[in-house]
Specification:
Blueprint lengths: L9 H16 L5 H7 L4 H4 L1 H24 L1 H21 L3 H10 L4 H14 L2 H33 L2 H21 L14 H9 L2 H32 L3 H25 L5 H24 L5 H28 L5 H26 L5 H25 L3
Helix pairs in contact: 1-7, 1-8, 1-9, 4-5, 4-6, 4-7, 4-15, 5-6, 5-7, 5-9, 7-8, 7-15, 8-12, 8-14, 11-12, 11-14, 11-15, 11-16, 12-14, 13-14, 13-16, 14-15
Length: 392
């Protein structure tokens, strides 16, 4: 059978997802070096993160519907070619504006993450898809932890440009792998097709889709709030070192890995909304325990950050089923659903990060952070119950 017609291996989809994540954070240790080498301000270089995130939100809204029309394979192959070109241009950049311009173009790599989920749904029933997405989600947890470490080593040995040469090499490797292994999984619709905007509107008018997507967005929002507020809490309330802070921040990601693994094991036996509600209840229970301990005067780094681990664990249980459920509302529009779901998650993360920065102040940061995270988690729980009552 032709490679272009056979479904890809799970490892191919995991590598595509991991590369999407690494493109965001692997080069972060090099920001100061980039600013010095390109003779510009650090604040301007840091836009390479914010602008990248903004582009990924827009790209997901585009590549999802397009892949529903023309297929997953051509969109992913095109995205990889663009990513390789952009990575080379970033590596060769001699000024900050060239660097930022092509750094934004690199955002097209998010197609690897969004369409990997759509491909899983194309080739599996809902519960099996949720299980496989759980295993893919583990890559999304490992990559952020290992990426900056590897990027820092590359920078120390060869300079900041080595990170972008690595991106280009990874892109070429993935392009060759996808050319051989990534078959088309989008089944062509029989009969006349409606317009792309009309099809997208059909999905967006479905309440059940919004229930899944909002559960995903608010659940992830609690994690983004933690990332924004944890450094202030650690410094002000506990006075811990940056190395210890890194361990505590990594703990919530470790919880997500465990939850994702459990999703992979349980999703084939339980309804998606059952896992979603279980994950939300676990996150809310952990945060409420943290508030009780805080009000009782039991304030230590281990008791505080030990309770926030439950957010990561709950998100690991929730997120794969949210993704599979959203793509199952209209299976023929799985790409569109994955794109919109991803854009809402990124946008929601930006909102919760900004909100946390505004609300957290010196003096009550520990209490306020838990309350913000609990609010996001509770809204996620209500959304999961909504999805359940809608018949999912």
């Amino acid at each position: 059978m032709s490679p272009a017609r056979t479904p890809p291996r799970l490892t191919t989809l995991i590598l595509l997802t991991a590369c999407s994540v690494l493109t965001l954070n692997m080069f972060l240790p090099s920001l100061a070096g980039i600013a010095a080498d390109l003779d510009t301000d650090y604040a301007l270089v840091s836009l390479s993160v914010a602008l990248y995130l903004a582009v990924t939100a827009v790209v997901q809204l585009v590549v999802g519907p397009v892949s529903d029309r023309v297929g997953r394979r051509p969109v992913l192959l095109s995205a990889l070619i663009v990513f390789i070109f952009a990575s080379v241009m970033c590596a060769l950049a001699d000024d900050i504006w060239t660097f930022l311009a092509f750094r934004m173009v690199q955002g097209g790599m998010i197609a690897g993450s969004a369409l990997s989920l759509a491909i899983v749904r194309d080739t599996n029933p809902e519960r099996k898809a949720a299980s496989l997405i759980g295993y893919i989600a583990m890559a999304m947890a490992v990559a952020p932890m290992l990426g900056p470490m590897f990027g820092g080593l590359l920078d120390s040995a060869f300079g900041w440009r080595a990170n972008f040469w690595f991106y280009a090499a990874a892109g070429i490797t993935l392009l060759l792998l996808c050319w051989v292994d990534l078959g088309e999984t989008k089944v062509k619709a029989a009969g006349p097709r409606t317009g792309m905007l009309q099809e997208t509107g059909e999905l967006l008018r479905t309440a059940r889709f919004w229930a899944f997507s909002l559960c995903m967005s608010f659940s992830t929002g609690a994690f983004y709030a933690f990332l924004a507020g944890a450094p202030l809490v650690a410094a002000e309330t506990f006075g811990v070192s940056t190395a210890t802070l890194g361990l505590f921040i990594g703990s919530i990601t470790g919880g997500f890995m465990v939850g994702s693994f459990l999703s992979g094991r349980l999703a084939t036996r339980l309804r998606p909304t059952t896992l979603m509600i279980a994950g939300r209840c676990l996150a809310c229970a952990g945060l409420m325990l943290g508030l009780i301990l805080l009000l009782s005067g039991l304030v230590t780094p281990l008791t505080y950050f030990g309770t926030t681990i439950f957010v990561g664990l709950g998100n690991g249980l929730t997120a794969p089923s949210c993704s599979a459920g959203a793509m199952s509302v209209r299976p023929k529009l799985a790409g569109t659903a994955a794109g919109v779901n991803g854009a809402l998650t990124v946008g929601g993360g930006a909102v919760w990060t900004s909100l946390t920065g505004v609300l957290i102040t010196a003096g009550d940061s520990a209490m306020m952070l838990l309350m913000i995270m609990l609010t996001a988690s509770l809204i996620g729980l209500f959304s999961a119950v909504w999805a359940r009552r809608s018949g999912a």
